[in-house]
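lol ok so funny story. i was supposed to be doing the assay writeup but got distracted and ended up predicting the structure for this chain instead. priorities right. anyway since i did it might as well share w the group, maybe its usefull for someone
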Amino acid sequence: MKKVGVGKFTLGAVLIILGIAFTLETTGVGIESRAVDIVLRYWPVVLIGLGVEFLLVARDREVRARLSVPSVLAIAFLLTMASALNFGSWLFYGWDWGWNWGWGGPLSDPYVITVPVNESADSLDAIKLTGVGQVEITGSTGSGVTGSIEISVRARSYSEAQDIAEDLRVDITKSGRTLVIDGPRPSGLFRSINIRLNTTLSVPEDWDVEVASSAGNTNVTGIRGEINVRSSAGTVTLDGLAREVDVSVSAGNLWASLGPDMESFDGSVSAGNLNLTVPNGVGATIEASSSAGNIQCSLPGVEVTKSAASSRASGTIGSGACRVDLRSSAGNVTIR
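and the output, tada:
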């Protein structure tokens, strides 16, 4: 019986789709720099493609279908490299690390523009921010969203920085009951530029807040609704007023506090430290783990156990009303 490797057709399809996406990314045609993001978001379709290819080959009774290991590894490598390039473009020009040197040489002085934000709260009860750099959100008793997004660009020359800055776009749209603010992102990979984004907003205190930040610190205070934060690189600081909190930090620290009205707190840090404050009189049921780090907790009712490489903590404080789940892959967890 003839053996046929499955995965070569899917590999070819992945190459074609990624090639088209990166062509759009570098040329700024059509959907511009969102092309690779869209493709990577639907990466599970690759598994469907492998399954369909396997079924088609298996229909022939005279052949024996088997996965082609080199093809599968090549697909995994391509998706990994595409993700690295896509994030790498933000890593080096989506955030200004303070360097005066880019890919092509020294960078110019920054050219700064400020985009005002002034949106009515009519029929809205939530806000979602993506790609907005450093974020400062404050809850208020006002009836709208006010603030600004400051865009600072450095390039090979000051005139080039000005051209790039004036070409960037902040998209402010409404999706259902949510105000969506999508930060600017230039097209092209590994361009010799640096961009700093500073977003400062005042929103109604009873709104839900969702933030997805690639690089930059995130500070959210005075919000009584739900808070959802996804930070790739930067420190996240939250107060204890929110009803529910779900926060994930890939590289950076998390500083947060529980509050008397908080129902749940889910916090995870991949590479960094997690610090949680439990004020007097606040009840919580705590589960915490650190894969490669220590857990420190002096609060009564919480027991800390340690093994050779990991630590865990669990227990109940007071009424145990707030469910708390803390996870750190490489870093320390402090509960106080």
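Residues 88-97 have pLDDT under 50 and may be disordered. The radius of gyration is 24 Å.
back to the writeup now i swear
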